[in-house]
């Protein structure tokens, strides 16, 4: 096997030739081999070591139900995992209350090896046949792996309830060509299946004729190759189905990860014989709605930086459509411990896959401390279901500065002058001035006398 191959189911053609009643016969059959290889865009890794118990097939007889009429529901359980299971407890319930068990509704399986099957049966009855054509039974299973880890699973099966009047009409309808047809199918109880994921396909095949049909081969095939068996063959064999009897089969299927969202058509081809050796064939088509996982990615919201209470801030939120479908009617809104300057919401409209954008706004924090907020992205997916994603954020807001009031400036006291001296102080100053004046007069006279004597000597 090429090491570069991706995980999935790959078809292998098997050609069988031989001679029957002197006539050469040849048939070609496609079987699918599950391969574990490189992951192709799957985020979740499947644990192949986990045992998986499924309802491989079921049979509930002729389907001619009257009020309080009993019937036997036969179930075949298959361990599709690679490990054994033990202590399996299985509960079969009809939530509508139309079909109830006559005894216990619990089936127990002590142990079941990997790849093995086991047949079980439970007796039930229809409590009310008014306007009743079918009902869904839930087969809830709980069991343990070799490590005593509990594993749970649930499978729906459809029981077609055919009234006695309808049975009589069918017997006298004059239909000569025996026909097998798909009277019901299910995809695990969901509205649609997710691309890249596994799902259980349940089929109910009914013999609508008055003859017993045998050697029945049923092939399930998607011509586009988008939906394939996740394990085993795309065909299964039924020994015989009596007139008016329905047969149920559950097939584990997987969906290609690259398929576009929409409805996939699957052909159910049936070939069979009657008791006289006549060969017949019939075909039905079923529709499986497929969707791609929508994936809106929102970046972490960056801190607006140093911001004080009452101060304007700016915030930007980047987002990306990283899925494979368009996000319809996308709307964005923000709220929290702040006041938005302008609109707090924006209508984006339809956002194609691979596109990115951003939403920005100005705001004023309401108070200091932690500012909490959230951005809410709301959109409709490919099925029209409304989805919502919230992105929360928390930032610290600094307190606004407090300025102290200096008040009035103090007035300095006036320095004391002469007018404030006492009388004795003033007297001392006056006396000093008189003495200084006397000495000044004497000095002037002495200087004048010396100058005169000098002039006389010159003469």
Protein architecture, described:
With 459 residues, the protein is mainly beta. The chain folds into 2 domains: 51-291, Sandwich (Immunoglobulin-like), CATH 2.60.40; 296-397, Immunoglobulin-like. Helices cover 10% and strands 51% of the residues. The protein has helices at 164-171, 423-458, and strands spanning 8-20, 23-35, 53-59, 69-79, 85-93, 99-101, 106-112, 117-126, 134-144, 150-160, 180-186, 193-194, 198-207, 213-221, 227-229, 235-241, 246-255, 262-274, 279-291, 296-298, 313-321, 327-336, 338-341, 345-351, 356-365, 369-380, 386-397. The longest helix has 36 residues, at 423-458.
Q: Brief description of this entry?
A:
By secondary structure, the protein is mainly β. The chain has helices spanning 164-171, 423-458; strands at 8-20, 23-35, 53-59, 69-79, 85-93, 99-101, 106-112, 117-126, 134-144, 150-160, 180-186, 193-194, 198-207, 213-221, 227-229, 235-241, 246-255, 262-274, 279-291, 296-298, 313-321, 327-336, 338-341, 345-351, 356-365, 369-380, 386-397. It has two domains: 51-291, Sandwich (Immunoglobulin-like); 296-397, Immunoglobulin-like.
